[in-house]
């Protein structure tokens, strides 16, 4: 049983990877499984929130009671999230958004041609969805995620400041993509603590439930 600590709150959550097409059959993506974002959506709904989930390409069932939109690219995710963000109390960005996309989309499949050199691609930067939402006036309560391979606390703090966030959650576990368990580091402007609170690691749903309790407390103060 989960206490309904988020009753009456509206939460918007991004999850999964994005896929940036190169041509009709190829693209740039990453190994995000979407599991953490979907666990966050489920935990938020269990805690009584109205939840909107914007998911990149993943094969995961929609948690009960959650309104889900599917997108492919970072630009689509941005264009769906931005107009909705102002009507939500909390925005949680768990998606592993591709930082760059091919500058031009080839309408037809790029063919291999033994005589020609291998193709080269120019990349262009994708919009930073989280930074754009955090810049709204007034912004919803924004929670970012950070996947770093080193100096997690330092990088998470830097991200907090750069994107103007009240809270960021770092992945302490080594290879978390696709795994069911993890250890998180919850970082705000002047403190940090690890989850699960008892130490060790926990499955993503248990972590998401703890995080929702934590976020609910922060909304009340
Ligand atoms: O800057 P970096 O990608 O490390 O930041 C990670 C955080 O920012 C995550 O919460 C991610 O969902 C969000 N993000 C975003 N849009 C981007 C890049 C990252 O919302 N284009």
UniProtKB/TrEMBL annotation:
- Gene Ontology MF terms in the entry: FMN binding; metal ion binding; phosphopantothenate--cysteine ligase activity; phosphopantothenoylcysteine decarboxylase activity
**Highest taxon, organism lineage:** Bacteria
GO cellular component term of the entry, any:
phosphopantothenoylcysteine decarboxylase complex
Q: What reaction is this protein's catalytic activity? A: N-[(R)-4-phosphopantothenoyl]-L-cysteine + H(+) = (R)-4'-phosphopantetheine + CO2; (R)-4'-phosphopantothenate + L-cysteine + CTP = N-[(R)-4-phosphopantothenoyl]-L-cysteine + CMP + diphosphate + H(+)
Any idea which UniProt keywords this protein has?
Decarboxylase, Flavoprotein, FMN, Ligase, Lyase, Magnesium, Metal-binding, Multifunctional enzyme
Q: Which cofactor does it need?
A: Mg(2+); FMN
Q: List every stretch annotated Phosphopantothenate--cysteine ligase.
A: 11-221
Q: Where does CTP bind?
A: 99, 109, 127-130, 145, 159, 163
**In this protein, which residues make up the domain named DNA/pantothenate metabolism flavoprotein C-terminal?**
6-217
**Cofactor binding description:** Binds 1 FMN per subunit.
Pathways involved: Cofactor biosynthesis; coenzyme A biosynthesis; CoA from (R)-pantothenate: step 3/5; Cofactor biosynthesis; coenzyme A biosynthesis; CoA from (R)-pantothenate: step 2/5
Function (record text): Catalyzes two steps in the biosynthesis of coenzyme A. In the first step cysteine is conjugated to 4'-phosphopantothenate to form 4-phosphopantothenoylcysteine, in the latter compound is decarboxylated to form 4'-phosphopantotheine. Catalyzes two sequential steps in the biosynthesis of coenzyme A. In the first step cysteine is conjugated to 4'-phosphopantothenate to form 4-phosphopantothenoylcysteine. In the second step the latter compound is decarboxylated to form 4'-phosphopantotheine.
Q: What is this protein called?
A: Coenzyme A biosynthesis bifunctional protein CoaBC
Organism from which the protein derives: Aquabacterium soli
Q: Which gene encodes it?
A: coaBC
Shown residues within the full chain: 187 to 407 of 411
């Amino acid at each position: 049983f989960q206490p309904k600590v988020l009753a009456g709150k509206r939460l918007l959550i991004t999850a999964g990877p994005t896929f940036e097409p190169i041509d009709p059959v190829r693209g740039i993506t990453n190994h995000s499984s979407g599991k953490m974002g979907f666990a966050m959506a489920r935990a938020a709904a269990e805690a009584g929130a109205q939840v909107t989930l914007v998911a990149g390409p993943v094969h995961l069932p929609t948690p009960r009671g959650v309104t889900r939109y599917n997108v492919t690219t970072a630009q689509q995710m941005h264009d769906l999230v931005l107009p909705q963000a102002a009507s939500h109390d909390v925005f949680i960005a768990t998606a592993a958004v591709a930082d760059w996309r091919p500058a031009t989309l080839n309408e037809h499949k790029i063919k291999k041609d033994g005589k020609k050199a291998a193709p080269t691609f120019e990349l262009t930067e994708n919009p930073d969805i989280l930074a754009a939402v955090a810049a709204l006036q007034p912004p919803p309560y924004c929670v970012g995620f950070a996947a770093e391979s080193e100096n997690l606390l330092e990088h998470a703090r830097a991200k907090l400041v750069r994107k103007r966030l009240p809270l960021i959650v770092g992945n302490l576990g080594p290879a978390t993509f696709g795994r069911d368990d993890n250890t998180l580091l919850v970082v705000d402007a002047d403190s940090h603590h690890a989850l699960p609170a008892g130490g060790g690691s926990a499955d993503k749903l248990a972590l998401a439930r703890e995080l929702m309790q934590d976020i609910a407390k922060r909304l009340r103060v």
